[in-house]
Amino acid sequence: MTTAEAGLLGSPDAEQAAHAVATGRVIVTQDRDFPRLHRRGEPHGGIAYCERGTRSIRQILEALILLNEVYDPEEMVGRLEYL
Length: 83
Fold this sequence. Notes:
This protein is an alpha/beta fold. The protein is built from 4 helices and 3 strands. It has helices at residues 13-23, 33-39, 57-70, 73-76, and strands at 27-29, 47-49, 80-82. The protein has a 3-stranded parallel β-sheet with strand order 1-2-3, with helices on one face.
């Protein structure tokens, strides 16, 4: 689900993170604000972060597939993973 599909385009990061928790989703992002949100201790359903321009789409997808194979959804809650 995209931010637009969730009706959260332009919403604050904390609101997007809260929506992810409520719907059992992990946020996949290149927005540098989300690792900061994690460091502040804001609750989230998990964050998969990739620095913009460092990975191809294929590499990002492969990393996300690996995360899905390694972690149960419950284990991603509150976790920040760098891709």
